[in-house]
Write a structure and sequence with these properties.
It contains 17 helices and 2 strands. The protein is mainly α. Strands 1-2 form a two-stranded antiparallel sheet.
């Protein structure tokens, strides 16, 4: 239920984070009264006041939440899906190159084109530099695309992110911000790659965990993603109210051209239709949780840099859902090019995410 209505839960959780002060005011906690404001802050599920600086900070570590989500993704990867990376390495590598070249270049282009201020410029470029999102695997299933290929793309993009993302960020942001490439690499290794590998290996080594953990991993991963975005919304309530339309236009253009880059990249790679659909969704959708963690860690002096990652999540989930439904409405692409790759009944991570536990 959570995954099937993920967009609804995105709107609900982030909407709650947005209106929390007004909601507390309706219950008698007046933000203009210091003693009542402190009581209201104590009830805030997303933020907590830092005792040293007096600033509101995330109640739960964003890095820990990202690591939790990535651990769950690792637990959802079956052995045959991981082997796809080795068996199909030319097309998997080609698709990953499309993503890691098209999206950083597009994000930089639109950030420059719309003449965004420095903080928002950084945030838009971050959106383009991070690896693809888990949600693309689920939407590929809904689009009747090749889920095996989608999972392979997400897996490889995640594993190489400590090497590629810092380079992409440094090249794109060299005139806007200084990048600690080594620090970014270590953070991605610690919060993204290591948890994925740990989750995968634990389920391979322990039959008991392999039987139980995947059932819980999907809902936990989605809940953590929801909480990350809601926390970003809560921390940027005032700033998001004044987000320029130019930022929304830049993100919409990035999303649309990302889909186009994925489609034409698939054409150039001569992929069958099901794999082209997977690549289209993979390139257009980005891991906002990782982008948010990077923004809050390495650009703490520009907190608004996290706004585009939160906004993009809503946008790509909405457009991705619409695109997946349109793909599914098209003519049958044949059993060998179906959502599961070779068999319609194959057990995939995306299928486990969309089906209730048995």
């Amino acid at each position: 239920m959570l995954q099937r209505h993920l967009l609804f839960w995105f709107v609900l959780s982030s909407g709650l984070a947005w209106i929390w002060p007004q909601l507390m005011g309706a219950f008698g906690f007046d933000g203009n009264e210091p003693h009542l404001a402190s009581e209201a802050a104590a009830f805030d599920p997303f933020l907590i006041q830092d005792g040293e600086t007096g600033k509101q900070v995330p109640r739960f570590s964003i890095g820990l939440l990202v690591a939790t989500a990535m651990f769950c993704i690792g637990a959802l990867l079956p052995r045959d899906e991981v082997n796809q990376v080795l068996r199909r390495w030319p097309v998997v590598l080609g698709g990953t190159l499309v993503q890691y070249t098209a999206m950083p270049l597009l994000s930089l282009t639109f950030a420059l084109l719309f003449q965004l201020p420095r903080e928002l410029f950084i945030g838009v470029v971050l959106v383009g530099c991070v690896p693809g999102a888990m949600a693309s695997n689920v939407l590929t299933l809904a689009a009747r695309g090749n889920v095996s290929y989608s999972v392979s793309l997400t897996t490889l993009a995640t594993l190489v992110s400590p090497l590629v993302v810092p380079v992409a960020m440094r090249l794109a942001l060299q005139t806007q911000a200084s990048i600690d490439a080594a620090g970014v690499s270590l953070q991605l290794l610690r919060e993204v790659v290591a948890p994925v590998i740990a989750g995968y290996l634990l389920c391979r080594q322990s039959p008991r965990l392999a039987a139980s953990l995947p059932r819980m991993a999907g809902p936990i991963a989605n809940l953590t993603i929801l909480w990350i975005i809601a926390t970003v919304v809560a921390a940027n309530r005032d700033r998001m109210q004044h987000t320029p339309l130019s930022v929304l236009a830049a993100l919409l253009a990035l999303n649309a051209f990302g889909y186009l880059a994925g489609h034409f990249g698939g054409v150039l790679l001569r992929l069958p239709e099901g794999m082209r659909r997977a690549l289209t969704l993979e390139v257009g959708m980005q891991n906002a949780g990782v982008g948010t963690a990077l923004a809050l860690k390495w650009f703490s002096d520009t907190p608004s840099a996290a706004i585009p990652t939160a906004v993009y999540t809503f946008g790509c989930m909405l457009t991705g859902t619409i695109l997946a439904r349109w793909f599914a409405s098209q003519s049958d692409i044949g059993p060998r090019d179906s959502a599961a790759g070779e068999r319609a009944d194959v057990d995939t991570p995306a299928r486990r995410l969309t089906e209730p536990p048995k």
